[in-house]
Design a protein that fits this description.
The complex is a heterodimer of chains A (322) and B (326). Chain A contains 15 helices and 2 strands. Chain A is mostly helical and 322 residues long. Chain A has a two-stranded antiparallel ribbon. The chains are: A mainly alpha (322), B mainly alpha (326).
Chain lengths: 322, 326
């Protein structure tokens, strides 16, 4: 134990910032916004924040799986973009086409994840580099297919992204459902335990009989699937297949996961806190918008937040020594 | 591998030789393919123009190579190129007398950003990949704030002409500047203590710390040099295009990385060097030109680049594993 903790009150000793920090941050930002900005408290604004968070929420859930397994997936932004473009181009406003295209896109997302998972196992290169390369392959694919906005989202997709059910945004409900399944997978199933074991120490997990390759493959498939879901919602939000729709989303998703206290080194974290991380990012962006801060300053602020969050999340010295 | 005792050793030596020189073989192959497909690849004027075309990326890649030998990475380099190109144009303000001070100031800005990267990485245990990605976003925002989101500043008269003049009507000055800077970069890598320490720290950081090497200082210097060469790349970009746009350098970091990885400097660090990087830059630009000549969609360049990053990393990893085991 660290030297200073002995003198602390027991309640403080239990305060682990990795797991509670995000809730304090979320509460703090929300409270600040609620007090300072009356527009923030309007129901429509709150619903908007939920809708805005839904795309990133899906991606953050998927990213949590790969990061828990000690991997990372930089290709999800472009995978999302590809799904957006293809969805709108194939559906092209036709409601009857929605279901087949939705299924096809979920398969596409999972397929991209499967390619990542297979290549990381076969080529044995760092997932950072692999998915980084994949980012360009996907970007090239998007632009070869369409270099301007194509197609039109159908009515059901737009309802999914913008509609309400009993006053609650449907996209938000979708994220909550996926979140519940993801949390169950990680906390209650054998797969979840193996996932954290591989992320904690792959070699030990292998010796304990875990099929490390299979776990890595599945983690990437889930990440790809989340990109498929995110792409479908984003297609509904945008209404048209904008080729650059997904660029940069991978970084936001990683930042949200890291904000939620999930260790980049793997083995430790929570999907629920990742979604809380997404809410913090959305709240912050909403706040800056309501305060009329220019987009340029927002970009700069975002960069600084990324750096600050990464610096705050670094492995502690004590943990390293152990 | 069940042959006589000498055979595995010979094989390992061959592997090592191949690992060290693969990029030069690749360069030759790409050129031969190009020459077979198009007259242009045997025309000196065209080849020098290709070097001029890639000079901004090539110059920036020199500095990032140091960082990667160290086992780090700098994804903020594209944003630095954008910022410095705009900054330099604003400082020049269309007056030839401002040229030199503008260039010096611009170099200072680039070096400062690199030094901040280096200091943050040296005094923490963060992943340089994500940290410099964050820095890229921050610097990109800074560029937009500085320029107001549009092209700003005016290039000094004569500056652009000088950079694009062809000596003897053949060799563009910008191409010479690139090759000269590569020469300086190579000298720093080969002849200075800093250069040797890069490889020692990159191949085994823990051992380097225990041996008392100035790991932090070397880290800061390497990233600062990346920033400096990034600024020179930005100035080269300004000289080549003559206009400063806020997103001029956007995405160039990926060409830089692809060229470096292609040149044999891996993400793991401890190996590679500037010579390989220069060859990697040339392979990349020739591959891009081939994509164009063959008549494929321009956007397929991105696919080529992504595939190169993945396959080159995998190939060097395999070669290293084999030579390491022997």
């Amino acid at each position: 134990m660290a030297l200073g903790t002995a003198a602390l009150h027991p309640a403080w000793r239990r305060l682990d910032l990795a797991s509670t920090g995000i809730w304090l941050l979320l509460g703090g930002v929300a409270l600040l916004a609620a007090i300072c900005l009356p527009q923030f408290r309007e129901v429509e604004n709150l619903a908007n924040i939920v809708r805005q968070s839904s795309v990133l929420g899906m991606l953050a859930i998927g990213q949590t799986f790969v990061i828990l397994a000690g991997l990372i997936d930089l290709s999800v932004g472009m995978a999302t973009g590809l799904v957006v473009v293809l969805t709108c181009a194939l559906v092209d406003g036709d409601s009857a086409m929605t279901l087949p295209v939705v299924l096809l896109m979920l398969a596409l997302g999972a397929g991209i994840g499967a390619v990542n998972g297979t290549l990381v196992n076969v080529l044995r290169i760092h997932p950072l580099i692999l998915t980084f390369g994949m980012l360009f392959v996907l970007q090239g694919a998007i632009f070869t297919y369409a270099d301007r906005s194509v197609g039109r989202a159908s009515a059901p997709l737009q309802t999914l992204a913008n509609g309400d059910l009993l006053g609650i945004p449907i996209a938000g409900i979708a994220v909550l459902l996926v979140l519940a399944v993801a949390h169950f997978l990680i906390v209650r199933t054998r797969f979840g335990h193996h996932l954290t074991a591989v992320g904690g120490h792959a070699e030990n997990a292998r010796r304990a009989g875990v099929n490390v390759r299979r776990i890595r493959f599945l983690a990437f498939v889930l990440s790809g699937l989340s990109a498929g879901l995110a792409g479908l919602i984003l297609a509904g939000r945008l209404g048209t297949g904008y080729p650059l729709a997904g660029s940069g989303l991978e970084l936001d998703a990683i930042v949200a996961v890291v904000l939620g206290g999930t260790a980049l080194s793997g083995g430790r974290g929570s999907v629920i806190r990742s979604v809380a991380g997404v809410l913090v990012l959305s709240l912050a962006s909403n706040l800056l918008n309501l305060m009329d801060v220019s987009a340029f300053v927002q970009t700069f602020t975002k960069g600084v937040i990324v750096i600050a969050v990464i610096l705050a999340n670094q492995p502690r010295r004590m943990a390293m020594a152990a | 591998m069940t042959g006589p005792a000498a055979s595995p050793a010979l094989r390992a030596r061959l592997d090592r030789l191949l690992a060290a020189n693969a990029i030069f073989v690749a360069l030759l192959l790409v050129w031969l393919v190009g020459a077979a497909g198009s007259e242009a690849f045997v025309t000196p004027g065209y080849l020098f123009n290709v070097v001029r075309q890639i000079a901004p990326v090539g110059i920036a890649a020199i500095g990032v190579t140091y960082v990667m030998i160290l086992g780090g990475v700098d994804l903020s380099i594209g944003a630095v190129i954008s910022l410095t190109a705009v900054f330099c144009a604003v400082q020049m303000d269309g007056d030839a007398a401002n040229t030199l001070p503008a260039i010096l100031l611009t170099c200072l800005v680039g070096t400062a950003i690199g030094a901040v990267n280096g200091a943050l990485i040296a005094w923490s245990r963060v992943t340089p990949f994500i940290l410099t990605l964050g820095m890229a976003v921050a610097v990109y925002g800074l560029t937009q704030i500085y320029s107001g989101g549009t092209a700003r500043g005016t290039v000094a008269p004569g500056f652009r002409d000088l950079a694009n003049t062809r000596l003897e009507g053949l060799v563009p000055v910008l191409a010479i500047v690139f090759l000269a800077l590569a020469g300086i970069g190579l000298a720093i890598q080969k002849m200075t203590t800093f250069g040797r320490q890069l490889f020692l720290i990159g191949s085994n950081r823990q051992a380097a710390i225990l041996a008392g090497l100035p790991v932090r200082r070397t880290t800061v210097i390497a990233y600062a040099l990346a920033g400096l060469f990034g600024a020179l790349g930005g100035i080269a970009l300004l000289a080549r295009s003559g206009v400063s746009s806020t997103s001029a350098g956007q995405g160039l970091e990926f060409q830089v990385l692809a060229a470096i990885v292609l040149g044999g400097t891996t993400f793991e660090g401890g190996r590679g060097g500037i010579a390989g990087t220069v060859a990697g830059v040339l392979v990349l630009v020739m591959a891009f030109n081939l994509v164009n000549i063959v008549g494929l969609d321009y956007h397929l360049q991105l696919v080529v680049m992504g595939a190169i990053i993945i396959l080159a990393s995998a190939l060097y990893g395999q070669l290293q594993a084999r030579t390491g085991r022997a």
